[in-house]
Amino acid sequence: MFYKVREMSILINKIKKKYVKHVENYLNLWFLKIINLYLKLKIRSADGTLERAAAIDRSLKEKNLFNSQSLIYKDETWNRVVNRWEDRRKIFLGKKITTIDNPCVNNKAVFDKNDILIKSVSRGDDWIYIIEKRDISNFYLKIGAIFYTKFREIQFGFRHLNFYYRYRFRIEGGFVFFDIIYRGKFINEIKKFTFEPEVGREYLFEIIVNEGFYCFCADGEILISVKESNPLIKKGSYAIILWDPSEFSEIAVDYKNCYLVDL
Fold first, then answer.
1. Minimal CA–CA distance to 163: which of 94, 224, 236, 215?
2. 134-156, pLDDT tens digit by residue?
3. Could you tell me if 226 and 214 are in contact, meaning their C-beta atoms sit under 8 angstroms apart?
4. What is the secondary structure of 168-194 as a DSSP string?
5. Separation of alpha carbons 147 and 152, rounded Å
6. Which CATH class is domain 46-262?
């Protein structure tokens, strides 16, 4: 009798898990459909020339707010990264996450005044995740960049509330993308433009975020420029993220002469 009850209990638990998974998949499908429809209605490509000119003009008049000492270093040992799959699921379902933020030992990045020098050799899930402490929702950020190696992803995050709510410009696979992470869901490739950084070449990147206007430039050329009416995420800071999941990873980047002004 005991074995029959036990077998029945196991069967019920299997049915429960299957049902819950089915409901989650259904909710996920409809959420993505709704959010993609919303984004099509709310986000439009924009010229961006006047906005960029205004941001540059302000940068010439304002003091540089970039301060490498106000940056927080994280990597693959960060609990948010370690538990990201389960936490994203909980956030989406409206559940409370219990992951505790933890400091990470910085052995990959050197912060030197207006420069960030990054070097990492790793096996597996290699992350360098640098977050600005201050809340800077609207800004103009200018960064000189040299990439000494090839790796999977280069990201510039903005309106960064946390791992589960943020905007980003992502360079990967020969393109730069505009993505949104909302409620733990990655809404990728909202906009994209062909761009493949060359190893050893120096670039000048500009990121402009002003209310619902978001722009990414490389060497004076606007690659992505969009306007979002009634932004999903209205405040946050910026983040610089590098990632490579390869079995053998080598990430070597210099970000130099970083310049930041509030807009």
1. 236
2. 999 999 999 999 999 999 999 99
3. yes
4. EEEEETTEEEEEEEETTEEEEEEEEEE
5. 12
6. mainly beta
